[in-house]
């Protein structure tokens, strides 16, 4: 099946004032390196944020380029052969132009092992954000940022519980299914192993371009926020959840989102504070979903 329906959330997700809630995989997973603050706002936030914030908003603000040279690098290691590194650098090019960059990478085998010899369950996460700030006058601020994220999440890590859902029953029927053990136990006797014959993947890739221009006047500020989001999601899943090549699923989605916001805000300490704005957005998501029969076609105990 192929469609072009966007899937905006009822919770607003904003990174540096830009709504990032419309993505190909339907989930928002902003990287949290080099943050200035994170705000969780309960209740309807449509008055200020305007778009898809009926149930609340999560407002993330990153560190901006500044006049101080700064560099930072960290490395980490943990369970499940997990390792990674992060790096941040801030460079003041001139009194009016500054650059800042952040990069991070992590690799892990994950908490669940696929014992099938055809499997590869490793995960890799890569993200990069470059930002520039330009101050052409005392009253104008121009911020441009580009964020790239690639998530290669390996296979699905759901452990069999022995309780058959409707999808499983539609495939296997309603009889006894000891064959689902497939050399391993159900949860809770087994909490870290699966046996999937398909080389599964859950790959997500996104690029976010965010341009913000602010102009201060005597009693108010005019702000422009322009955003472009391009994302892709690709998933191969062993639908039968066992070592037999019976049923497999492939999902693919591509999304593009453009938005433009203009906002007037009062400044100063007066009794009346006001905000007026206009917002335009154009979202398109193309999805493809395919369920395929494997080479074996049937399964018997």
Task: Give a quick set of tags describing it.
four-stranded mixed β-sheet, 301 residues, 53% strand, single chain, mainly beta
Walkthrough of the structure:
There is one protein chain. The mean pLDDT is 84. It contains 1 helix and 16 strands. The protein is mainly β and 301 residues long. The chain has a 10-stranded antiparallel β-sheet with strand order 1-16-15-14-13-11-10-8-7-6, with no helix packed on it. It has a 4-stranded mixed β-sheet with strand order 3-2-5-4, with no helix packed on it.
Short recap of the structure:
With 301 residues, the chain is mainly β. It has one helix spanning 166-172, and strands spanning 2-3, 12-15, 18-19, 35-42, 56-62, 70-78, 82-92, 97-108, 113-114, 123-137, 140-152, 193-194, 201-216, 220-237, 247-266, 275-293.
**Overall form:** elongated
The total count of helices amounts to 1
Physical arrangement of strands within the biggest beta sheet: 1-16-15-14-13-11-10-8-7-6
* Secondary-structure element string: EEEEEEEEEEEHEEEEE
List unreliable stretches of 5+ residues.
none
Could you give a short account of the major beta sheet?
10 strands, antiparallel
How far apart the termini lie comes to 33 Å
Task: Give the integer mean of the pLDDT values.
Answer: 84
Task: Please identify the structural class as seen in this structure.
Answer: mainly beta
Q: Residue share in helices? A: under 10%
């Amino acid at each position: 099946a192929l469609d072009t329906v966007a899937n905006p959330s009822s919770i607003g997700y904003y990174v540096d004032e830009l709504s990032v809630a419309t993505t190909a995989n339907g989930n928002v997973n902003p990287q949290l390196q080099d943050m200035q603050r994170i705000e969780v706002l309960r209740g309807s936030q449509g008055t200020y944020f305007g778009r898809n914030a009926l149930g609340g908003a999560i407002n993330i603000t990153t560190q901006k380029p500044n006049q101080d040279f700064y560099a930072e690098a960290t490395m980490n290691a943990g369970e499940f052969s997990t390792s990674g590194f992060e790096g941040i650098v801030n460079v003041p090019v001139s009194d009016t132009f500054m650059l800042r960059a952040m990069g991070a990478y992590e690799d892990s085998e994950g908490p669940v092992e696929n014992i099938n010899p055809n499997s590869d369950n490793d995960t890799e996460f890569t993200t990069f954000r470059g930002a520039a700030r330009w101050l052409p006058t005392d009253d104008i601020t121009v911020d441009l940022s580009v964020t790239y994220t690639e998530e290669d999440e390996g296979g699905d890590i759901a452990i069999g519980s022995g309780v058959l859902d409707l999808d499983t029953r539609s495939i296997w029927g309603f009889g006894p299914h000891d064959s689902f053990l497939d050399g391993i136990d159900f949860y809770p006797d087994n909490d870290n192993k699966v046996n999937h014959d398909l080389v599964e993947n859950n790959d997500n890739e996104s690029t976010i371009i965010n341009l913000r221009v602010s102009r201060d006047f005597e009693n108010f500020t005019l702000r422009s926020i322009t955003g472009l989001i391009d994302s892709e999601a690709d998933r191969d899943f062993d639908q039968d959840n066992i070592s037999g090549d019976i049923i497999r699923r492939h999902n693919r989605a591509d999304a593009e989102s453009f938005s433009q916001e203009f906002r007037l805000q009062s400044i100063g300490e007066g009794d009346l504070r006001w905000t007026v704005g206009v917002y335009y957005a154009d979202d398109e998501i193309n999805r493809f979903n395919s369920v395929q029969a494997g080479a074996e076609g049937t399964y018997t105990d």
